[in-house]
Design brief:
The complex is a heterodimer of chains A (279) and B (189).
Chain A (H helix, E strand, L loop, with lengths): L12 H20 L3 E2 L5 E2 L11 E3 L3 E3 L4 H9 L5 E8 L11 E10 L3 H16 L4 E5 H4 L6 H13 L4 E5 L1 E2 L14 E2 L1 E6 L2 E8 L4 H17 L9 H9 L4 E7 H9 L13
Chain B lengths: L2 E3 L8 E4 L2 E11 L7 E8 L5 E7 L3 E3 L3 E11 L3 E6 L6 E5 L15 E7 L2 E6 L3 E9 L12 E6 L4 E5 L7 E5 L4 E5 L2
Antiparallel strand pairs in B: 1-6, 2-3, 3-4, 4-5, 7-8, 7-10, 8-9, 10-11, 12-13, 12-15, 13-14, 15-16
């Protein structure tokens, strides 16, 4: 690209049109189901403690959101019905073929849904966006050879996912990777799942945990891990935990990467092909 | 020498890997949503030419390698070493051992120019130009008029290399040869 072309978008006009169509389809999908579109702040006072997700700090204010999860759950605690939100989220240092520090996330919550109901609805939405296909599901333990833990397991998982053909839900994540999912009655696995499409992770969901003291313990463990990794600790979001303590209805929730779905639809080789002006 | 973190990796960057200078060919960022980030990197080992693939945790780093490419003129062989001189006017010379010229040896003509890869100012690989012009020192006599049949015969060049040439070629002819395929291209004179 010559220097005279620096102003040009990296996305083609076709990619812009496809994104517009995606957003319209997503709104019609949830509109028909009576799911409310909401907006929670992109600029947050507190951020997530996840050891492997780094927030971008905004001096004097807090952080750019890494996902709208906490805000949306506070709305659920306040009695809101099913919710969805589409918008920009930010993750420091994530850059590559399938990653950009700013990307578009679709997140939605369905009171009364469990994992199975949520995975069915995800399949319906993905069919509506990419065209219909079959879905399989496979437990995490079947993908990652026994005994792997920590980052070795992360690498084994990433490599196994790349080889999964078609559309596949990975279920039953190990307890150590429960994040905000409730645990199964076996106490060893969590009600967390991911959707892999053509080898690419496009969604992560939970049957949500509802126990504030358990979540606090997980956040504190996250911060211990962050310290071990030499990363700054993150203050626990007390407003979020207070909302959980007040009571969030039993629900399932999921976050879906819209840019990656667009890439899959268009056969794009790099995320910049579906973004206008990536940094 | 500087060190480079995975987030500075880019194609063509020269780094040290397991004691050998390498050039980065590909760098892929791999990260499960909530998991550790990795960089899966393909390297060309500049000493052996082999491609290595290694995976790093993102944030790990490698030392840089002091590697440069120089155009150098072949001077002579003293029987043990092959001597080259820089063409940038510095007249700097390096001596390459026999194993470095195995592939270029068939094309080593004095005063011809070669691509030399230097690591810490020492040669680690020597590449012949894609085309060379060399004199035929021995072959069967040429057959007049036989230019189109595609038949070939062996010819020995001034460097000792033996290549297949068309039947009309004679001893004393200067030929243009493609060093990548060892094929005859044309008769220069």
């Amino acid at each position: 690209m010559s220097s005279g072309d620096v102003w040009r978008p990296t996305a083609s006009l076709r990619a812009l049109a496809e994104r517009s169509d995606f957003l319209a389809r997503i709104r019609s999908f949830f509109g028909e189901r009576g799911v409310l579109e909401v907006q929670t702040p992109v600029l947050m006072r507190d951020s997530v403690t996840e050891p492997m997700i780094d927030s971008i700090a905004v001096p004097g204010y807090g952080y750019l959101q890494t996902s709208p999860e906490y805000g949306m759950k506070r709305l659920l605690a306040a009695g809101a019905p099913g919710l969805y939100q589409m918008g920009a989220v930010f993750r420091d240092g994530e850059r590559g073929r399938w990653h950009n520090p700013e990307f578009t996330l679709l997140e939605w919550y369905r009171p009364g849904f469990d994992e199975g109901a949520m995975m069915r609805e995800i399949g319906e939405l993905v069919d509506w966006l990419l065209g219909p296909a079959n879905y399989r599901s496979i437990p995490w333990q079947h993908l990652v050879a026994g005994g792997f833990e920590g980052d070795v397991a992360d690498l084994a998982y990433a490599q196994a996912c790349e080889k999964l053909p078609g559309r596949c839900f990975v279920t039953h994540f190990p307890r150590a990777q429960a994040a905000l999912a409730r645990l199964h009655p076996d106490g060893l696995t969590a009600a967390r799942f991911e959707l892999i499409v053509d080898g690419v992770e496009v969604a992560n969901g939970y049957h949500e945990a509802g126990d504030a003291s358990e979540l606090r313990a997980r956040f504190e463990a996250d911060n211990v891990r962050r310290m071990e990794l030499g990363k700054p600790g993150i203050a626990i979001d007390e407003a979020f935990l207070a909302a959980v303590a007040h009571g969030i209805p039993a629900c399932a929730g999921v976050a879906m990467g819209i840019d990656r779905l667009l890439m899959l639809k268009l056969g794009a080789q790099h995320i910049r092909e579906v973004l206008t002006f990536p940094l | 020498m500087a060190t480079y973190s995975t987030n500075e990796f880019k194609n063509g960057l020269k780094v040290m890997l397991e004691g050998d200078p390498c050039s980065i060919l590909e760098n892929e960022y791999v990260k499960p949503g909530k998991g550790q980030a990795f960089n899966r990197v393909k390297f060309r080992n500049l000493k052996t030419g082999r491609v290595w693939e290694r995976t790093f945790r993102s944030g790990e780093s490698l030392p840089g390698a002091d590697v440069m490419e120089a155009e150098m003129e072949y001077l002579y062989s003293d029987g043990e070493f092959y001597h080259f001189m820089k063409t940038d006017g510095s007249f700097e010379q390096v001596a390459a051992s026999e194993d470095l010229v195995v592939e270029a040896k068939d094309w080593l003509k004095e005063q011809d120019k070669f691509q030399v890869t230097l690591w810490n100012d020492q040669p680690i690989s020597i590449n012949a130009p894609n085309f060379v012009e060399l004199e035929v020192t021995r072959c069967d006599p040429g057959l007049k008029g036989d230019t189109a049949t595609g038949a070939t015969k062996p010819a020995t060049l001034s460097t000792g290399a033996i290549v297949r040439v068309p039947l009309f070629v004679n001893e004393g002819d200067v030929l243009k040869i493609d060093t990548r395929t060892r094929e005859y291209v044309s008769r220069v004179r």
